[in-house]
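User: Modeling request: complex.
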Amino acid sequence: MEREVRELRRAMFEHSILSMNAVPDRIFDRAVREGWNRRSYASLRAVARVAPLSVPLWSWLAWEDAARFRLEAFLSDVVGLSGALRQYAPGVLGYAVWVVLFASASACWFALWASLNLLLRARPAMTSDVARLFKALPRPEIFSSGIVLAVFAAPIAFGAGIAAAAVFWIALSGAYLRRAEFVMGGTAILLLAGVFLCGGFLEAVQPIAGYARQGGWLGVEGYYYREVPDSRDAGRVLPTGPQWERMARFARARAEMQRGNLRTAESLWTGLIGEGGDLADAYNNRGIVRVRLGRTREGLADFEAAADRTPESGRAEWNAYQLYLQELNLEKAARIQPAAWTGIRGLAPFDYRAEEMTHGEMVASPLPAGDVWGTLLTVREEGFREARGSGFHRLFFRPVPGEWVLAFLAAGGAWAGLWKLLSRTIWMNSVCRSCGASTMIVGSREHADVCNMCRAQVGKGIRGGEEAERRGLSISLHRRYVRACSVLFPGAGALWAGKGFRTMLYGALLSISAGLFTVSWGAGRLAGGLIGDMQTDVWRAALGATALLWLFGVAWGWRSFDTLQRDHNVAGERL
Amino acid sequence: MAFVRYPAARSQRRRGKVVAVQGKIADFGIPDIFQLVSSQGKDGSLAISGNGRVTTFLFSGGRIVDVQPDRRESKSLLGTMLRDAGYLTDSELKRVLSSRWPGGKKIGELLVERGKISKEVLARYLLLQVKECLFDVLTLREGEYRFEGFVVHAAAWAGEPIRADVLLMEGMQYLDEYQRYREIFPSGGFRVARKRGERADPYAFSEGERILWKALDFSDDPERIYRKACLTGLEGIKALAALLDRGLIEVSATEPGAGVDPARRLRDEIAFRRRFDAIRMALWGAAAAAAAVWVFRGLLSRGAFRTFAAWVDFF
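Assistant: Request completed. Predicted assembly structure:
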């Protein structure tokens, strides 16, 4: 494999090709067909030298290293991955989309988890308040329980989206929550607003996918090139801005260079240099084109101009060094040799070895994609516009019309806040967190959410008989309810125990692992090759982490609530 | 007067115990038998049967040290008395009853050991139990008695042995006066409660009135109030009559339909709440299952995961 890689590498240099991104996936597909995919690590590591811009390959290698506890190789692969992400435009876009999807999935899980937990936290007091409306009936608690259950089930029955239902539930629960729980609900609503805007971003970026992937104009490195669209065509699917326009022109010049249309390539590079901006890469690539056209002196001037602008990049110095050697200008070659060798070795993710490059190989500059990150993630007007009809809107915010989603979220948050403020001035029910006893209260419920009997630690009460029996029953039913909530909605017990912010942190961790599962599960099933293989491992790991966190949440919530009850002498041990 | 007469009363040895006296109540009155055992300072058990139940008194040196009411008459059992007085819940009583046999300990001893009640409380309720059982057997006109002699040692945790002659005096008073006081109150069931806004000076009360006044907080059922105050029926009704005379309480007759035992009513209510809560939890469980399906469709269905796998298209 090493010999084949070296020969392929030499052929690539002759066409100024920096990466053959298709090669790793082809090899891996073959390994899967022939059944040696579990032993393909060594082969694919060697292939990284001819496909250094393959983000899936570096990710796969890093994942395998992590799974095999190879720290040194893992760190080196992470460097390779970050280098590929800085220089391979589809990788940048794909990674940005992955980040946005991962964040959105995590935010959705968090909102869902938080809203359900908060509704169940508020349910007992809400049921008692609704029962006040049915005082005239013989068993008001039956009707009120039915109504609260219907309120919970209504969004599900009507097929509302997760985000719409979550906001509805949070708005209902607002008045019955502690401050930390209220912050949790508010955070969930803010995150949902972010999800909505992320939908707009994805909608704006999605059309680029067809142009970016294999064979498209952005994916020039190492693919067969179907066509060279006019930069104006490219501009139609790109995010707006001069940076993206320049990137499209650069990609087109690189494509012409690789196809061997040297004169067209030279004019395109000259055009780019004439426009100004970051010129070092354009000078370097024009220098290669001119050398291949036989205009060595002009090429050398371009290399020197590039090296003057960014001496640390190493490519232009290497190319100049090669040219000096070809012209037998050994004095100059010797002078810049150390810098050229050092520079070329430090070019991540390219594993250049100067001692192997003895046939006059020149190193071209790739598409400078790394600096578009900021532009890519900047909130733009089209993001808002596209969000109204995005896939996220249809999936999560139905039936709220796209134009009204942000207003709906704001109204949900405002209603929860208003409901909370109203609870400070009107009589409402409050349920003791420890024993579940319901009391009517007005004012700040934060101080009164543990009843006086629990504060005084009098166990089942200061009187015996019926009162003690009733209180004992209330305690045991409350305990059963909180334990059931803890099992179904992990962390609920800790929320009842008053650990609001810690529960929120736990919910964030749970949501992140669930979000990772969501983005990797689909990819594992849909994508083949390296991505499919790696994502299959990732979703299994994410699912395992989610299950572990779930179990931890159940145990932690259960224990926290038991401790709370024990501290208030209603746990059964000290009664 | 012949104290012992064959065949109504005879002595015989059986299973290591000496059956000293036995006969019919119609022939030989209960007070006389108690008097006889007490004056002779006997050790042993006196079993009195009548009205389909048997009550056994244990004597040591002629003094009553314990009583074993008929198990069918649960009202007089110590556990029931303490439960009615609020010292135990139903479930605690069941737990104690199911756990006491292996050690062979009696319920009062166990409750003191577990810290549910103090020794003083136990002694008071044991005395009350003896009194109530004695007053109960004094009302018997038909039945039999049987005294078996054997050595009885008073338990350390029980109270002081009780002089039977003193109790008999109280019993006679009970027989004479109870009906008179009872007639002050509505026939059938009734309830009592403190009058709203009435202020009382506890120092002006007798001991019984003071204890009963305090116990009025506990329940509106006179029987449970007496239990809470640890008073016999006569002491309780006397104190109630005195408080009624002072105008501090109000009495209302219970309606025929409402004559359900309060403990039974409470148990029914608890059973209802448990059933209701179980049904409610089952419904919420079903709703949670529906929510899980809904979440799956929202975040993990084919459509959703196509959306979330869109990033793959860029590589």
